[in-house]
Amino acid sequence: MSIKLIATDLDGTMLAQDNSIPQANLEAIKTIQNKRIPLAICTGKSYAISKDICNQCNAQYGIFGNGTQIIDLKEQKEIYRHCLTMEELTFCYQLAGKHHLHIHAYGDNFVITEELKYMDLRNYATYFKSQHSVFGKYDTSFNLMLHNSKTELSFYIVKNLLKYVQEHKLTIFNVILSTENNLEEIRSELESKSTLTVQFISKKGDYKDELLNKEYDYFSIAPQHIGKGSALNFLKDYLKINTNDTMAIGDNLNDIDLLKSSGVGIAVANAYEPVKKVANYTTKSSASDGGFAEAVYQFVEF
Question: Is residue 1 scored above 70 in pLDDT?
Answer without folding.
Answer: no
